[in-house]
């Protein structure tokens, strides 16, 4: 359903993405892991044109666009198909939870307000925020804010939702709350591309895990392949480091 | 209309000779109102009962009324009051021998203080409470913590606004003519009176302030760059 | 002191002065309107990528900040018609108020450009990204998400600028446009310069009340528009 | 070059076409010129110019109230064709403006003093006594008078300071003792102190006015207005011959200064 | 060495601490765990007088002070004995790493600059920042900043160091870095009181764990007592929730 080919991106002289390919089928839940600075965030942002790639193609079903030279119309078309959940939520501070969810529907999609409110409420219900329609972001806890962020993405009924470390700004007790919601959504068959450090989520929910390092995809496969029998030395080293504490405690 | 060029040039230097007075007033006013504004800003942030109310009324009056009116009121009523006090306590000096520059110091210090209270109030707010707590936790006393940690950081945030306030202050010193102070505007106007060369005088006034204020602005920018050296990377 | 100070002059001044607020308001409101518009354009130039436009906008701001208002007023009052006369357009007969409004528009524009720029820059870039990511077009994102938030940030400084303008507006009298300040001067003149203190006290009360009202109004506005705003602190 | 005669300055007098003239006046200089409570310009200088207007059918005067600074800039630049502000004559000023041949009015200028200093009759006396003088606005003619005295008497100068018209209430300052004396024109002194309803009538026994000079005052013409200035000369001459101005003097200054015209030096 | 008795603290009508007692011996590493809002932070802050307790005593060896009515001198004395490591680092933004460490020595303790620099460099070396003496906080990663924070505390050579969730503002890869440093310091015999959500640290390093809830100490004991055989129902519930994810992944 979504194919990305040969995505390149430099900041100044720094080449961050050195030709990344990726193909996602409908219903897939793909998790990207990798060390800090390896280009995971940059990659997601290129897909959504929040960053303009230097080179690369994206195909959504029929529609194929060049990531570097896409026209305004094409960008708009793709953004309609893709939703983004940000690490630091980025909720609209001046809108209530419900308005945050309906903004894209009413203004972006031209759905009548009544209908949009209905969709918005359903989405908020789904993430367990039935009682927070009228709250402003400032009145919500971190976990609740991130759930609104997810509802905002879900309500758009996009072809795919991109998550960029959706739990890393949360404190430990709130992480569970958000992961549970993501798991539910995945189970409903939503296509998802998730950058995360939550290994348990990757193990339990993903059907494919991609390990990125230094701007390239080093290794990809099922969670079992990657976590239990990684082939590449770099992957092993990374997993050792990130899982160290947890192992230590359980041994 | 014809510009009298020799007059223009001569008067430029006459106006320029008013710069020291303008600068003196500016510097004295800043010297008084920087610390005072900072302290009063603290009283407002800490909601000290009486001082807080006082500084609110004070700020609102000073910011709410034109400087020229304040000058007038101070210049005309303070001597009256002083004269009575002197009389009562039998002080043997004449109120009227006081150089008017003292009134300028009072008016412009009062004014600048009011503006700086607001500037500092918002700037102090941007320095997180944690900075003070950390300083206390490593064993600094409260005054030490302010001097070494809080004030330097506040200053950085406040600097652009202090710059604006200073430029406005310099321009406002031109109102000192109402108190017969030999600053830039008055000097140029006196020179202009003999031959009614007002056009030239105003061009000179314009040039002198433009140069003076641009230099001040430049100095502030330069100082700001130096102060913020620790900030550059974090952006 | 009673000998000179006659409070009845204060009371008598009010009814004479207050009608002239009309002129003050007219000048202030029009200048704020056009000045904000100009400030918006300048801010766009400063924020944008075009280096040349940036330089112009910043240079404009520096020069206008450094020019005393009275000089600017003369430059506009005499300079603008002088330019237009070259095109065969005679502006000497148009209302003085227009020149005053033009002067303050130019000045207010410079101040507002900084207010708008800093307000815009205070809004997290993520807000824009989130908006386009839910399918808003860039203009929609600005209109619906960025501007409403920047507006709240700009409000207090906008209020300050307005108060400043209100007071500076008294300058209009220099070219003979009679506002409250001008009227006060004329009352004093018609008393042969006597009892000026009382008249100025009445004047400052009017200004004070006015600015308190404006201040309160802006506080209300700020509270009203910043409904969802606490967020910023909590992140 | 900026000038007025391209658009509004159609040549005078021809074909009975009436030319509009902007007469600027200082609108806060009672009783010489001011804007009265009903919004009408009046005062000696203004009323005299109104009489001039009546005698010049080919010109139509429009009175524009403004401040002294603007008046000077405006007349020299051509925005106003003529301005009245109790202006005195100096050599240098003739470079900037046309002074006509005929003066417009007379101004009695003197010292306000405390009763006890009544014996001070001249600037020489004042200077010798080492007395302090109230500040005078830099753009005021009185400033020039004192300044010129100082130039002529470098060994016995008056302590001269410039200030602002509105912040200095000369009579009060003298009475308070803030200064020993102030320069003032007779008209305002009459109206403030001597007049029964004057605001400082209560000081009538405390302060005195000692005239030290009577000076001619002039309208200032824009440099391009020679023709108009000549027309003015004709008219004002006639008015003086008809003694029309003496009445105005009485009305605004309570005194006909034409009586002492022969003693006037300038 | 440090004894706290009957610490009470209310904010407005909200009673946050309802009489907390604690006794720490020299060389102890005590970990406090507990749900969000249970008063852990408030308790630490009261010890250091960053918050003024309503009631309670603290004894440091000989010195006993009343937490509510301590004089300025007493407060200053105690602060000289106690160091604090903040959750969000709170490094002095306007000082370099080295200056951050030496500030308290030079200004607070009146140690000559030369000597203080020496101590400061040693402390920074200990946390692995030998090459960052002259860096400003803005130029350091989160993990590095927190290590400076620890060095700043260590350099003061205090009787006890208080840590308030020193790793919770860090991203997962940086957590390890900081925990390692803390472990080293603990092994050197420094007395430590640590609020943390890092269960592995509690298990491996602490010799005593305290579970706080709702302003009181619910249970305390060795890590084994608390994690493996907690007595109180509330403790069990809390542990179940916080450990849920980790368990899930390892099962
Ligand atoms: N706007 C930018 N300008 C310059 N460099 C950038 C920019 N954005 C990112 N980078 C650099 O690109 C590299 C990759 O950043 P990216 O955020 O994609 O990494 P990441 O894999 O998401 O890391 P993390 O796990 O820490 O989020 C980093 O070295 C970063 O410094
Ligand atoms: N300055 C304050 N004013 C009012 N209430 C406060 C203040 N500081 C803390 N509280 C309240 O005190 C309670 C305990 O706060 P505290 O920060 O001590 O909890 P904690 O155990 O550290 O929680 P966490 O694990 O979330 O940090 C909370 O309900 C909090 O809302
Ligand atoms: Mg990232
Ligand atoms: Mg806490």
TrEMBL record, chains A, E:
InterPro entries assigned: AAA+_ATPase (IPR003593), ABC_ATPase_HisP-typ (IPR030679), ABC_transporter-like_ATP-bd (IPR003439), ABC_transporter-like_CS (IPR017871), MetN_ABC_transporter-like (IPR050086), P-loop_NTPase (IPR027417)
Record localization: Cell membrane
SMART domains found in the cross-reference section: AAA
Entry annotated with the keyword Nucleotide-binding: yes
Primary localization: membrane
Membrane topology term: Peripheral membrane protein
Domain ABC transporter: 2-239
Keywords for this protein: ATP-binding, Cell membrane, Membrane, Nucleotide-binding, Transport
Molecular functions per Gene Ontology: ATP binding
A Pfam cross-reference name: ABC_tran
SUPFAM superfamilies: P-loop containing nucleoside triphosphate hydrolases
PANTHER family tied to this protein: AMINO ACID IMPORT ATP-BINDING PROTEIN, L-CYSTINE IMPORT ATP-BINDING PROTEIN TCYN
Record protein name field: Arginine ABC transporter ATP-binding protein
Lineage: Bacteria, Bacillati, Bacillota, Bacilli, Bacillales
TrEMBL record, chain B:
Main subcellular location of this protein, as a coarse class: membrane
Alphabetical UniProt keywords: Amino-acid transport, Cell membrane, Membrane, Transmembrane, Transmembrane helix, Transport
Compartmental location: Cell membrane
InterPro entries reported in the protein's UniProt record: AA_ABC_transptr_permease_3TM, ArtM/GltK/GlnP/TcyL/YhdX-like, MetI-like, MetI-like_sf
Entry-linked Gene3D superfamilies: MetI-like
Highest taxon of source: Bacteria
Chain ranges of the ABC transmembrane type-1 domain: 19-217
TM spans (from-to): 12-40, 61-81, 101-120, 149-170, 201-220
Keyword Membrane recorded: yes
A Pfam family matched in the record: BPD_transp_1
Membrane topology: Multi-pass membrane protein
Record's keyword annotation contains Transmembrane: yes
PROSITE patterns given in the database record: ABC_TM1 (PS50928)
NCBIfam families xref list: HEQRo_perm_3TM
Protein family: Belongs to the binding-protein-dependent transport system permease family.
Protein's recorded name: Amino acid ABC transporter permease
Organism: Lederbergia ruris
Lineage per the UniProt record: Bacteria, Bacillati, Bacillota, Bacilli, Bacillales
UniProtKB/TrEMBL annotation, chain C:
Subcellular compartments: Cell membrane
Signal peptide stretch: none
SUPFAM superfamilies: MetI-like
InterPro entries: AA_ABC_transptr_permease_3TM, ArtM/GltK/GlnP/TcyL/YhdX-like, MetI-like, MetI-like_sf
Keyword Lipoprotein included in the entry's annotation: no
Annotated ABC transmembrane type-1 domain residues: 17-218
Topology relative to the membrane: Multi-pass membrane protein
Family annotation (CDD domains): TM_PBP2
Major site of localization recorded for this protein: membrane
Bilayer-crossing regions: 20-42, 63-85, 97-116, 199-219
Pfam family, one: BPD_transp_1
NCBIfam families on file: HEQRo_perm_3TM
Family assignment from sequence similarity: Belongs to the binding-protein-dependent transport system permease family.
Protein name: Amino acid ABC transporter permease
Organism: Lederbergia ruris
């Amino acid at each position: 359903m979504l194919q990305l080919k040969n995505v390149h991106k430099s900041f100044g002289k720094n080449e961050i993405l050195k030709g990344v390919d990726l193909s996602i089928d409908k219903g897939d839940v793909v998790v990207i892991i990798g060390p800090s600075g390896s280009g995971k965030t940059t990659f997601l942002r290129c897909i959504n044109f929040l960053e303009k790639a230097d080179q690369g193609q994206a195909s959504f079903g029929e529609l194929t666009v060049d990531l570097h030279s896409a026209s305004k119309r094409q960008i708009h078309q793709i953004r309609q198909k893709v939703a983004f959940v940000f690490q630091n939520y980025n909720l609209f501070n001046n809108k209530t939870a419900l308005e945050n969810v309906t903004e894209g529907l009413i203004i972006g999609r031209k759905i009548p307000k009544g209908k949009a409110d209905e969709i918005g409420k359903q989405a908020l219900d789904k993430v367990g925020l039935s009682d927070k329609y009228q709250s402003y972001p400032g009145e919500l806890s971190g976990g609740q804010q991130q759930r609104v962020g997810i509802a905002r993405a879900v309500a758009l009924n996009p072809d795919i939702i991109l998550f960029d470390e959706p739990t890393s700004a949360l404190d430990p007790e709130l992480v569970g709350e958000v992961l549970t919601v993501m798991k539910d959504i995945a189970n409903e068959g939503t296509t998802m591309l998730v950058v995360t450090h939550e290994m348990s989520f990757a193990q339990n929910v993903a059907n494919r895990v991609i390990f990125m390092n230094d701007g390239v995809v080093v290794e990809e496969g099922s969670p079992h392949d990657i976590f239990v029998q990684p082939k590449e030395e770099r992957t092993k080293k990374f997993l050792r480091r990130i899982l160290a504490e947890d192992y230590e405690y359980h041994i | 209309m014809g510009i009298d060029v020799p007059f223009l040039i001569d008067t430029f230097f006459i106006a320029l000779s008013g710069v020291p007075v303008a600068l003196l007033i500016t510097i004295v006013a800043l010297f008084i109102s920087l610390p005072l504004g900072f302290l009063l800003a603290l009283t407002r942030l800490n909601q000290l009962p009486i001082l807080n109310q006082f500084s609110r009324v004070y700020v609102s009056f000073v910011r709410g009324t034109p400087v020229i009116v304040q000058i007038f009121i101070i210049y005309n009523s303070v001597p009256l009051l002083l004269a009575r006090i002197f009389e009562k306590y039998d002080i043997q000096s004449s109120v009227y021998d006081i150089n008017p520059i003292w009134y300028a110091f009072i008016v412009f210090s009062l004014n600048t203080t009011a503006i700086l209270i607001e500037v500092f109030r918002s700037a102090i707010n941007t320095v997180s409470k944690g900075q003070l707590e950390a300083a206390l936790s490593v064993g600094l006393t409260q005054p030490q913590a302010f001097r070494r940690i809080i004030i330097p950081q506040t200053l950085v945030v406040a600097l652009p606004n202090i710059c604006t306030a200073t430029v406005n202050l310099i321009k406002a010193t031109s109102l000192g003519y109402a108190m017969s102070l030999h600053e830039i505007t008055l000097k140029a106007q006196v020179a202009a009176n003999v031959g009614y060369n007002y056009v030239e005088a105003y061009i000179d006034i314009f040039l002198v302030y433009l140069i003076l204020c641009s230099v001040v602005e430049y100095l502030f920018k330069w100082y700001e760059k130096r102060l913020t050296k620790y900030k550059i990377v974090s952006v | 002191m009673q000998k000179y100070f006659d409070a009845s002059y204060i009371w008598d001044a009010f009814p004479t002065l207050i009608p002239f607020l009309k002129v003050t308001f007219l000048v202030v409101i029009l200048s704020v309107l056009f000045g904000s518009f100009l400030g918006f354009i300048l801010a766009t130039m400063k924020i944008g990528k075009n280096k040349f436009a940036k330089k112009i906008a910043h240079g404009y701001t520096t020069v206008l900040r450094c020019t005393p208002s009275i000089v600017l007023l003369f430059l506009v009052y005499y300079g603008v018609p002088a330019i237009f006369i070259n095109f065969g357009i005679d502006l000497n007969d148009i209302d003085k108020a227009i020149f005053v409004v033009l002067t303050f528009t130019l000045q207010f524009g410079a101040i507002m450009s900084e207010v708008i720029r800093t307000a815009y820059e205070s809004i997290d870039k993520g807000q824009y990204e989130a908006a386009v990511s839910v399918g808003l077009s860039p203009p929609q994102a600005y209109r619906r998400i960025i501007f409403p938030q920047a507006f709240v940030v700009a409000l207090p400084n906008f209020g300050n600028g307005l108060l400043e303008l209100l007071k500076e507006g008294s300058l209009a009298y220099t070219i003979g446009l009679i506002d409250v300040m001008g009227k006060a001067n004329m009352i004093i003149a018609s008393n042969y310069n006597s009892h000026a203190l009382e008249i100025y006290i009445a004047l400052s009360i009017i200004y004070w009340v006015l600015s308190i009202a404006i201040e309160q109004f802006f506080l209300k506005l700020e509270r009203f528009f910043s409904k969802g705003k606490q967020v910023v602190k909590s992140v | 070059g900026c000038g007025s005669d391209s658009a509004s300055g159609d040549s005078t007098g021809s074909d009975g076409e009436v030319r509009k003239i902007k007469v600027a006046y200082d609108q806060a200089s009672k009783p010489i010129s001011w804007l009265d409570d009903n919004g009408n310009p009046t005062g000696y200088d203004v009323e005299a110019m109104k009489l001039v207007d009546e005698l010049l059918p080919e010109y139509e005067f429009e009175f524009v109230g403004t401040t002294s600074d603007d008046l000077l800039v405006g007349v020299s630049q051509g925005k106003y064709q003529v301005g009245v502000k109790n202006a005195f004559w100096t050599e240098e000023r003739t470079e900037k403006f046309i002074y006509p041949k005929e003066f417009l009015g007379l101004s009695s200028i003197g010292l306000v003093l405390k009763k006890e200093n009544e014996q001070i009759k001249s600037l020489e006396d004042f200077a010798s006594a080492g007395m302090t003088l109230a500040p005078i606005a830099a753009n005021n003619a009185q400033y020039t008078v004192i300044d010129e005295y100082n130039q002529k008497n470098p060994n016995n100068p008056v302590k001269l300071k410039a200030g602002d018209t509105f912040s200095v209430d000369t009579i009060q300052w003298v009475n308070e003792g803030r200064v020993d004396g102030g320069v003032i024109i007779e008209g305002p002194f009459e109206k403030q102190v001597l007049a029964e309803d004057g605001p400082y009538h209560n000081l009538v026994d405390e302060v005195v006015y000692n005239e030290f000079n009577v000076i001619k005052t002039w309208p200032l013409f824009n440099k391009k207005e020679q023709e108009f200035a000549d027309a003015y000369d004709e008219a004002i001459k006639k008015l003086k011959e008809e003694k029309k101005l003496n009445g105005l003097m009485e009305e605004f200054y309570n005194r006909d200064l034409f009586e002492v015209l022969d003693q006037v030096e300038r």
